[in-house]
Write a structure and sequence with these properties.
Number of strands: 14
Low-confidence stretches: 1-8
Strand content: 15-25%
Number of helices: 15
Structural class: alpha+beta
Shape: elongated
Mean pLDDT: 86
Helix content: 25-40%
Radius of gyration: 31 Å
Strand order of the largest sheet: 12-11-10-9-13-14
Order of helices and strands: HHHHHHEHHHEHHHEEEEEHEEEEHEHEE
């Protein structure tokens, strides 16, 4: 439940945590300096001084109200705390001794020029700590089971891997290929070619078919938790249930609330609470200690950007997950995969890294933080280094005149801001930089 007296929706537990952390910090600092030189500044006091000195409106576009959409609000808080010593608190207490109305409390004048603070805030570079550690979760926690589903394919599309894993359902075809391979010098493709000729005569068609077992990894999911994409893309393993649910939800598929209600009705009617579900990713690893369970690899450790050889300028990204890092560190993987033997390594990017982007048709540049690495789409999630929320939230709540890089970011972007690596590096000069805690840019 929101704490009514808290600022910006803080709850009582968070306020208590802040009080405890302040006391713990005071005890920690007492080990290196005299305890009488350490004092805590009440949050209400800093909020009052910020408001009365008009510092909130430097960042906030909502008048004299504090915004947390920009990381630089911490620097303004730090400035106020630095100016709030015991003498200032005593002066406020003396001036307002007879005044019990908090809204009418008088405070001393701000000791600096407001324009000086605005200039410092505008030129400030926000430092982020990148995650360069090689420790991470290798697998997702949800276990999946392997199911074999019969599928008819053309004989010409048979693969050697399917044969070796004993996934060809037609045993006569398996026996024919095995007999052919027993002959010295016979390759798998040659055996399939002979099978194609044989089955063309037998099935009286130039495109004969065979039956194989296709691997499908399934887990379970509540019917009420299914969304429109799950239903439209056939993520329900049972084709019968998938057909029933799809037909019954066709008229409410675009309405989330109505869809959830309809799914609950279907669940009660059929007496089925959970269904076997086909996850979007179908790439799983088997755990040796639990042979009947399969787990999805989780977590990208870093991404390497490569420039491909050739006259045409082209860049690709190689994503390395924690499983590959574990194998490499254990000596099981000699080197990380490379997209081409002659590819040139441009840079390695970790989550939290800062890159400097300068459009090739402009002299201006801006900084971006690597907020995420998306392996499935091969893109990077770029966010402003000053933004503490989505780009849309940041640009809605923050003043444009304190952010020189304002125009580089699309104000409609809400959430991830994925950019294709090839386009990013072809249209811009991109360099990896570091920003020290003091805001100094290190190339």
């Amino acid at each position: 439940k929101p704490f009514e007296g808290g600022e910006n929706g803080f709850i009582e537990r968070q306020l208590n945590d802040n009080r405890y952390i302040s006391k713990a910090a005071r005890d920690y600092l007492a080990c290196i300096c005299p305890q009488n030189n350490i004092w805590g500044v009440p949050g209400k006091a800093t909020a009052m001084l910020r408001r009365n000195w008009g510092l909130n409106s430097i960042l906030s576009s909502n008048g004299n109200y504090k915004t947390r959409a920009d990381h630089r609000h911490h620097s303004i808080d730090a400035l106020v705390i630095a100016l709030t010593d015991r003498s200032l608190l005593q002066e406020i207490a003396v001036e307002n001794k007879a005044n019990m109305d908090v809204t009418k409390i008088q405070v001393p004048d701000f000791p600096f020029s407001r324009q000086c603070v605005v200039r410092l805030v505008t030129d400030m570079n926000v430092s982020h700590k990148p995650d360069h550690g090689h420790q991470g979760r290798i697998f997702l926690e949800t276990a999946t089971g392997l199911k074999l589903v019969r599928k008819i394919i053309p004989v010409s599309e048979l693969k050697e891997e399917t044969y070796k894993e004993n996934l060809i359902a037609d045993r006569l075809h398996v026996q024919f290929i095995s007999t052919c391979l027993a002959d010295s010098g016979m390759t798998f493709r040659k055996a399939v070619k002979l099978l194609l000729q044989k089955e063309s005569e037998s099935q009286k068609t130039d495109k004969p078919v065979t039956e194989i077992f296709e691997k499908k990894w399934v887990t379970t999911k509540d019917i009420s938790a299914l969304d429109d994409k799950d239903i439209l893309n056939g993520r329900i393993f049972s084709s019968r249930l998938n057909t029933i649910i799809r037909e019954r939800t066709e008229d409410v598929i675009s309405d989330k609330k109505a869809l959830a209600q309809r799914l609950l009705e279907i669940s009660d009617e059929l007496g089925v609470k959970r269904v076997r579900y086909l996850p979007f990713s179908q790439t799983y690893e088997q755990i040796q200690s639990v042979p009947n369970k399969w787990y999805q690899l989780d977590g990208i450790c870093f991404a390497t950007v490569w420039k491909m050889p050739g006259e045409k300028e082209e860049y690709v990204t190689q994503f390395i997950d924690y499983h590959q890092v574990y194998q490499h560190d254990a000596g099981k993987l000699t080197e990380y995969p490379k997209p081409h033997p002659a590819a040139k390594k441009i840079m390695t990017l970790y989550k939290g890294d800062i890159i400097r982007i300068q459009p090739k048709d402009s002299e201006k540049c801006y900084m971006a933080k690597i907020a995420g690495l998306n392996q499935s789409s091969g893109r990077l999630d770029l966010q402003p280094i000053k933004s503490a929320e989505s780009i849309r939230g940041w640009k809605t709540e923050t003043n444009a005149w304190v952010s020189p890089e304002w125009d580089f970011w699309d104000h409609l972007t809400d959430g991830h801001n994925y950019k294709a690596v090839n386009v990013l590096f072809k249209e811009n000069n991109v360099s990896l930089v570091k920003i020290s805690p003091s805001g100094k840019i290190i190339f």
